[in-house]
Design a protein that fits this description.
The complex is a heterodimer. By secondary structure, chain A is mostly helical. Chain A contains seven helices and no strands. Chain B folds into two domains: 118 residues, no CATH class; 134 residues, no CATH class. Classes of the chains: A mainly alpha, B mainly alpha. At the A-B interface, helix 1, helix 4, helix 5 and helix 6 of A face helix 4, helix 6, helix 11 and helix 12 of B.
Chain lengths: 164, 263
């Protein structure tokens, strides 16, 4: 159920994702329009994912749904501002990149290497596979999700920068 | 230059140089392989040539041949400069390739607008620095860090990203750059542990290095693999993973110095 409390949390989540998307977008130097669109898409996508996770969906599935929603919207926006879809759909995915999981993977590997106690080492290798698989599946979900619409409508997606 | 003025029709060599330059510029700016091939093929078609293109991490190999005369062909290999993301260039070159195709732009005009697009100035580095710091602080908020953690991450990212900008300007090996700036950022964020600031110092430490995660190369690599350019995709994946390993090394070094055993 959507309550006001949940809505408030979703709003905060979306806003923070938007700020994050703007900051990570400017590293790749896109045009000004694209920055705003990617902030908007990131807010919607991240809030959607937040909601889905709250309703009990597993994180990589939720990411997949959110990413395909972003992909669908980004094709629409690509038509509007005449700019390849990935220019703003990639930055809007960046807040969802499993960075925390990725480096926890490496960290648990380093801990495994340094630990001589067998029981603890087993725990670290479990962590390694858990975090590693999560990272991999979230990444796959992000990219497959965002490119599904492109694969469905290839004509539209590859001719958005065409002006005539 | 004199050649150009004397005969209007550009030679196959000129076209080849232009097209490989465009392809390598797209690769440097962070386009995925499918887009590079489509853009360049479209332009080649306009000039009356057909091309076969192989894109690798370090070089681009292109064979260009005349549409009507198979004996007229040329193969060129061009080096690719190290990755410097620039999506303005990607979208404008993509638009240029459609313009070339639709308006049948002459060679001189294409090469002129190509040089204009490449010469464009980037966004001010100080603004980028500030926005990245804000972004990473917001990221820390997404992971449920408290206000102390958010403040710490803001400062840490400011310092870390500044170090990265300065080192990239001096053309230092990018693995070293990533390790050092991860080290600087996490050392500053680790101050939360040292001075007992807030209730979530571990989130501050963890998210202080996340601004370095190479998101665009990671997405590009998976996209390349999906679209069948497996070799390029794996090369990008290995590159991105080695950067993540460097980030972890930087983080781990500062944890050793601060005497933190667990995260």
């Amino acid at each position: 159920m959507i309550t006001t409390e949940l809505l408030r949390l979703m709003l905060i989540d979306g806003l923070m994702a938007a700020v994050a998307a703007i900051g990570f977008a400017v590293i790749s130097n896109p045009s000004r329009n694209a920055i705003f669109v990617s902030a908007f898409l990131a807010a919607i996508g991240h809030a959607l994912r937040f909601y889905l996770i709250k309703t009990g969906l597993e994180i990589s599935l939720a990411t997949f749904v959110a990413a395909s929603f972003i992909g669908l919207l980004s094709i629409f926006f690509a038509r509007v501002i005449h700019c390849p879809a990935e220019v703003f759909s990639f930055p809007s995915l960046l807040p969802m990149i499993p960075g925390m999981f990725a480096y926890k993977t490496i960290l648990s590997l380093i801990k495994f290497m340094q630990n001589s106690d067998v029981l603890k080492a087993q725990g670290f290798i479990m962590d390694f596979f858990h975090y590693g698989m999560t990272t991999l599946f979230i990444l796959l979900a992000l990219v497959v999700g965002v490119s599904l619409p492109v694969l469905f409508f290839p004509k539209i997606s590859f001719s958005v920068t065409r002006k005539y | 230059m004199n050649n150009e003025l004397e005969n209007k029709v550009p030679t196959i060599e000129q076209i080849a140089v232009l097209l490989t330059d465009i392809a390598s510029q797209l690769m440097t700016s962070g386009a995925h392989t499918m887009r590079i091939i489509q853009n360049v093929s479209r332009m080649a078609k306009t000039f009356g040539y057909k091309i076969d293109l192989s894109v690798f991490q370090q070089s681009i190999m292109m064979t260009i041949s005349d549409k009507n005369d198979d004996s007229k062909l040329l193969t060129k290999i061009t080096k690719i400069k190290p990755l410097l993301l620039n999506f303005t260039i990607v979208s404008e070159l993509s638009a240029l390739s459609w313009d070339t195709y639709d308006k049948k732009l002459p060679y001189e005009e294409v090469i002129e607008s190509f040089h204009q697009i490449v010469a464009q100035k980037r966004m001010s580095r100080w603004l980028v620095l500030f926005l990245v710091a804000c972004a990473n602080a917001a990221f820390c908020g997404l992971f449920k860090g408290d206000f102390y953690a958010i403040g710490l991450v803001f400062m840490a990212t400011l310092a870390g990203f500044f170090v990265r900008q300065e080192m990239i300007k001096r053309h230092i090996n990018h693995l070293v750059v990533f390790t050092t700036s991860a080290f600087v950022a996490s050392l500053l964020a680790g101050m939360g542990y040292v001075f007992h600031l807030g209730a979530t110092p571990e989130i501050a430490l963890g998210s202080s290095v996340l601004y370095l995660i190479p998101g665009v190369p990671l997405i590009n690599s998976i996209l390349d693999i999906i679209e069948g350019h497996v070799l390029t995709g794996i090369a990008r994946l290995v590159n991105a993973s080695s950067l993540i390993v460097c980030i972890a090394i930087g983080l781990f070094t500062s944890m050793l110095i601060l005497g933190l055993e667990k995260l």
